[in-house]
Design goal:
Shape: globular
Number of domains: 1
CATH topology: Serine Threonine Protein Phosphatase 5, Tetratricopeptide repeat
Number of strands: 0
Structural class: mainly alpha
Distance between the termini: 40 Å
CATH superfamily: Tetratricopeptide repeat domain
Low-confidence stretches: none
Strand content: under 5%
Mean pLDDT: 89
Number of helices: 7
Radius of gyration: 14 Å
């Protein structure tokens, strides 16, 4: 599949998600990079980049990616909760707390994620 194929971005995202779930973070990041370059307005791609950053120990990179995901799709409480986690990982609890509160207020149905906080 080539980047000019309309399904390329979804395919690259799916591959990156697969490798992320399998624990191959370097390959997940490599598969995600072209999709991000081709569609920088896709919140789910930024969110996955943030999740990869969190899991790989790049909290600062995760904060940047997750901030962008939240900016692009503020309705996704899971993105905001992950941003709070990334901020905590950068030892920034003062900024994390209001983000957690807004995410919880926006989606009270996300109780499993809330309970983990």
């Amino acid at each position: 599949m080539t980047p000019d194929d309309p399904k390329y971005i979804d395919h690259a995202y799916a591959e990156a998600a697969h490798f992320f779930q399998a624990g191959d973070l370097a390959l997940a990041r490599a598969r995600l990079a072209p999709a991000l370059a081709l569609n920088p307005a896709d919140a789910r791609i930024h969110a996955l980049a943030g999740f990869i950053g969190l899991r790989s120990g790049d909290a600062a990179g995760a904060v940047e990616a997750l901030r962008r995901a939240v900016d692009l799709d503020p309705r996704q409480s899971v993105f905001a909760l992950a941003l709070g986690d990334a901020l905590l990982a950068t030892v920034n609890p003062v900024e994390a707390e209001p983000i957690y509160r807004r995410a919880i207020a926006a989606d009270r149905s996300n109780l499993p994620a809330i309970a983990l906080r």
